[in-house]
Design goal:
With about 220 residues, the protein is mainly α.
Length: about 220
Amino acid sequence: MLINKKIQSTFLLLLVFCTLQAQQHLDPEYIKVTNERAAKIVEKLALNNSEKEAKVSSIIARQFRNLSKIHDARDAKVEKVKACSLSKEKQNTKIEKIKIKADKAVSKLHKSYVKALETQLNEAKVVEVKDGMTYGVLPITVAGYNDMLPNLTEAQKKYIYDALVEAREHAMDGGSSKEKHGWFGKYKGRINNYLSAQGYDLHKESEDWHKRVEEREKNK
């Protein structure tokens, strides 16, 4: 009887914990924040269709919340493993498995999210949403490389653009500004290595570019 009561008590505690976790993502303030973030992205799309705007806003806001659920669950599990009295090697193995599982869930969510957007928007507008979710880093970075290196070949420009597109796909799923920018930083490193192999002295090119930018500012 005592064992049954303990089991019942443990079950109730787990139920309360799970309910609180679910409520965290249904918190009115949290929903408000995600709705506002989505609305800002949709406003820039200039759809001129209130019904479509509402649908797209809902899709984007829901994506923010769904990503947060996966990230929060992943982080909670990782912290739990770190608190266990396991060897560092075993902890790292468990943490890696948790992250792989979360990454698979995010990848699946990413695909369904893009498909949902495509039911409402054309390809160009979907790209605008992706840029909106990633602070416009891709077009800003492309413009920066083109301005710094005006003699880039079409093949080099394509490499830069394609690499940043891949970075944006990952950054869209980031749970924080730091994580989103981290993805672009990783791919910019690849781009710089590529350009160095192509014969560019990026240190010198960067210095010269900053001088040109300063001159432009002075002459405005």
